[in-house]
Design brief:
Elements lengths: L1 E3 L10 E4 L2 E4 L5 H13 L3 E3 L6 H7 L2 H9 L23 H8 L11 H17 L6 E4 L21 H11 L5 E5 L6 H6 L6 E8 L24 E6 L5 H18 L3 E6 L16 H12 L5 E5 L8 H9 L5
Parallel strand pairs: 1-4, 1-5, 5-10, 6-7, 6-9, 7-8, 9-10
Antiparallel strand pairs: 2-3
The structure holds {5-[(3-aminopropyl)amino]pentyl}boronic acid (OKP) and zinc ion.
The site of zinc ion has 7 residues, from loops.
Amino acid sequence: MIVYYPEKHYKHAGFELYNGEKTQSSENPIRVERIKSTLENHGGFTFKTPALCNKKLILQTHESSYIEYLVNGNWEETAFPSVWNYTDKRQVPIHAISQKGYFVFDTYTPLTKNLWEVVLESASCAVSAADSLAFEPTSYALCRPPGHHATKSMAGGYCYVNNAAVAANHLLNKGAKRIAILDIDFHHSNGTQDIFYNSRHVLTVSIHADPARKFPYYSGYEDEKGIGEGFGYNINYPLDKGVDDEKYLEVLSKALLQINQYKPEILIICAGFDTYKKDPICDFSLTIKGFERIGKLISKLHIPTLVVQEGGYNLEDLGNCALSFLKPFLR
Ligand code: OKP
Ligand code: ZN
């Protein structure tokens, strides 16, 4: 299996402000290094670094003022918002402090030095991996930073550019008519939902912790079904705490049935392993063996599948969670 890996990701590392307190970020460079070394030790994976994708592709996914903000941002020190847009005006503000609150929706997502080159390379992993579906049934984009919380015009939840959404737009440009994105990260994929909310060409399905209890809090509820011609093409499965392998597989089977009915030409899996029982910030209880069962069930659909890495924070077991999930796709 081909794996696209971002070699400059380590340049992005920071802290987060959680409820007013400064803490070490869970989203650190060790994460993808753990996954990489576990897959390398196992064998069957070929690592490549991506060619940087065209900025136009990113502008098709995100608002241009937001992307210009990331491109031109010259943050010498880690920066965070402190005042948010409390109006419904969409007018890019002038002051540096108001701009941060305009383009970043939480205090977990630091604006760091070299941010743009790092996020561009992460998105490029997803695009390159999408291209390799032309000659491989499955490919894996080992993205960092992750992408699924990034909306059209805001960063948040450790995400800046929505890697999976950029890849989906790339595949639509190449002629695909129906793409399904299934997000199995513990957290609701609010960004992906936002980007494709009015589209029937991209079915977005997310299985996650009930946002009444967990991040991103404001979206991920069952009644969010899409809008306009996209109505019916967004599906959310908010779940209670403590979900185990059996319960998860039961919900996943339902989601896969809906995906199959849509008859997608390509399936994108936004894979987060923070549903793992020993994840330090989450409250589901999936096992390493459970990830293999999840991978097997998905692989049995026999749809060309792009796996895009999202979250997962248990550094000790993260590599084995990913390997276990990917194994059924190896041939
Ligand atoms: C990103 B992804 C923990 C609180 C921060 C933010 C969660 C972002 C998750 N110190 N919570 O979906 O895994
Ligand atoms: Zn997550």
